[in-house]
Design goal:
By secondary structure, the protein is an alpha/beta fold. About 30% of the residues lie in helices and about 25% in strands. Helix 3 runs parallel beside helix 4.
Length: about 240
Amino acid sequence: LSESKIKMVKKYMERRINREPISHIFGHQEFWSLDFVVDENVLSPRPETELLIETALNCIYSPTSKILDLGTGSGAIAVTMAKEISECKVSAIDIDPKSLNIAKENSERHGVINRIEFICADLRTSDWSGCFSLILSNPPYIKSEDIEKIMPEVRNYEPRKALDGGVTGLDFYRSIIPMAVNRLEENGFLILEIGHDQAYEVTALLNNFSCYQNIKVIQDYSGYDRVVKAQKTNG
């Protein structure tokens, strides 16, 4: 190795010794066999979130579906859905303009920027416009007091706004579930990633609304509750 490459490797090693995530060191993270640009402003996409994509693809009933991604971050969900469903239209909301810049860069890298509308807004308070076949979200769901207990790679380097779900970890679900009622098409699906111990609470929130039917909890490949889906019906 040249002297410059040795210095570069040593610098990378020092960063990793300090528990900086590899995705941040190299600026990329694989998700759904696609390469995504990431930095300190966005949550690096996790393999567990691929289950949300699998679930969503199994719920598609039209190639021209309209999809809403709440809290898009790196754009991993929005971009992947746009890649998989060639005629769909996606709206992607995030409160942070820096996150949206990363999401736009990823959508351009993968040739879907013309089919994704990026919206800078607080998903908990904004009145989302439009009517959607699918509403998807991997919202922040860690209890505020638990953030200091998680691994330093996450605690010290991932954006807190993408982690902190409030005192109970349910703040975002309490906002998303009622707001989605008026934004889902008839027979449309709300699909949410959850913490492994949140299935009971999230399904209870869904059961507060009679229009949500066919509620199902789906386990990831490690056997943990990971995704909740519900279908909107007016019957």
